[in-house]
Amino acid sequence: MRVPRFCRVTETRLRRCVGHDGTMPITRAGRPRLTTQRRPGSTARDEILDAAGELFTTLGYMGTSTRTIAEAVGIRQASLYHYFKTKDDILCALLSQTVTPTLMIVDSLTAADPELSAAEHLHALALFDGRQLLNGRWNLGALYLQPELRGVGLEPFWSDRERLRLHYLALSMAIVADTGVSDAAADLPFRLVESLVNMWSKQPGPDRTELPEHVADACIRVLGMPDSATPALRARSQQELTRYGTGAV
Questions:
Q1: How confident is the model at residue 104 (pLDDT cuts 50, 70, 90)?
Q2: What digits encode the pLDDT tens for the residues 167-215?
Q3: How many CB atoms lie within 10 A of CB 147?
Q4: Which of 21, 78, 111, 183 has its CA 20 to 30 A from that of 236?
Q5: Distance (Å, whole) CA 173 – CA 40
Q6: Would you kindly state where each structural domain of the chain is located, as residue ranges?
């Protein structure tokens, strides 16, 4: 069955949560910092996101103030507002990091030559997505579970996440149409991949490194594909992700 097409994600849409308005360049100079650089990143904006990622995932969103974030970076609170208008803007930018790369790889997988089957596409997508969620510096995917994250200011993120879920669903429906598994199983691959946020604290090593591939395999099995299909799917996924510079774990 032919792989469902995925409408192109424009750069404008993917970056809605990244800048706090539509005009201010993200590299614009802010006020002098209070200390030497404490955080990784080529800009103060990157440092703010890194600090917020740590604080939101350890103290919680409600337990973190913009003052605390600024202090963690070593800048004045007023300088933080130069890059992000509100705390919601910071959170939205962080959450976008969990979906934007995956949305962008979809076009590459859709344009693969030779064309990917629905199973090949889903396996590669799940592998890439799982690595994005599991290998970040902070467990940003865990923020999905915080109830206060349903605010109106985060609608761009939730909208893009839903578009990603629907793409998973379309691929899964194409597979179960051939395997005969109940349509009810078609929503499981997306949920399986997101379950990796619960494994983020696992110690680095081979067991953790291999988790995204095992989850990608599980996404295919739960839709009724036989185990014998797994080696070929793994090989094609690695081939396509390497082709687009995303094959490294």
A1: very high
A2: 999 999 999 999 999 999 999 999 999 999 999 888 888 889 999 999 9
A3: 7
A4: 183
A5: 42
A6: 21-84, 95-243
Spatial neighbors of 181 by CB under 8 A, at least 6 apart, are 175, 222, 223, 224
Closest CA to 102 of 173, 160, 19: 160
How many whole angstroms separate alpha carbon 157 and alpha carbon 109?
22
Which of 1.10.357, 3.40.50, 2.60.120, 1.10.4100 is the CATH number of 95-243? 1.10.357
Please report which residue ranges of the chain form alpha helices under DSSP H.
11-14, 44-58, 66-73, 77-83, 87-110, 118-134, 155-179, 188-194, 206-209, 211-221, 230-243
* Class at the top of the CATH hierarchy for domain 21-84: mainly alpha
- pTM, to two decimals: 0.83
DSSP type of residue 20: S
- Report the pLDDT averaged over residues 149-173: 90
Residue corresponding to tokens 């890439």:
128
Residue entry with tokens 């629907």: 166
The Cα–Cα gap between 31 and 74 comes to: 11
**177-to-132, 141, 172, 196, 211 alpha-carbon distances in Å:** 29, 31, 9, 27, 27
